[in-house]
């Protein structure tokens, strides 16, 4: 698989088999991902991968906070806040496409809420990663973290695995911190659930379109 094939094959997958990724394969993937570039080679990212029984306990702890009515407390401003114009339109269309494939009407709030809650079930993936960076770092450093995240997701594709990046997993960081999953002085930017795709899952039929090249690129000569 070349890079072009990996980029086109990568999708946000939300239905996973329970089979875990072997430790050797996971370490092989992470060893390659660490070669992602960053400004001045600062490598501002930190990845915590939670699996097995720890993953189940983490899910329970996050749901305990949600069910207790605890307000989200992300370290950084979520990416869906303050959207307007074409960016808000794209967000809305993304949600509508998602609900349409899942057979959920816009007025069915209970079903929509249940679908959102699957974020904190990690979409039943056997592994979940939390990507953090120092709290006093800014957007330029977050670019580096994004490069690392894309690098990691493409390697997962190459190795026959699937993943879904999740901003929602930054909203309840305390249970992750409690298990030692966030370095001191850092905050979670996003999460990444990953494993082997369950190709029979309806939720994996969601395919998002992209804006035409002319909308997002300017060529000057």
Task: Give structural notes.
The protein has helices at 3-9, 23-33, 52-67, 85-101, 109-117, 139-158, 174-178, 213-216, and strands at 46-51, 127-134, 162-166, 186-195. The chain is of the alpha+beta class and 221 residues long. The protein has a single domain, classed as NADH Oxidase, CATH 3.40.109.10. It has a four-stranded antiparallel β-sheet. The longest helix is centred in the last third of the chain and has 20 residues, at 139-158. It is globular and about 45 Å long. The mean pLDDT is 96.
CATH fold assignment:
NADH Oxidase
Task: Please state the average pLDDT score.
Answer: 96
Distance between the termini: 33 Å
Strand order of the largest sheet: 1-2-4-3
Strand count, sense and barrel status of the largest sheet are: 4 strands, antiparallel
Count of individual beta strands: 4
Question: What's the short version?
Answer:
The model has no long low-confidence stretch (mean pLDDT 96).
SSE blueprint:
Blueprint: H1 3-9, H2 23-33, E1 46-51, H3 52-67, H4 85-101, H5 109-117, E2 127-134, H6 139-158, E3 162-166, H7 174-178, E4 186-195, H8 213-216
Antiparallel strand pairs: 1-2, 2-4, 3-4
Helix pairs in contact: 1-6, 2-6
Key attributes of the depicted protein:
221 residues, alpha+beta, NADH Oxidase, 4-stranded antiparallel β-sheet, 40% helix, 13% strand, globular
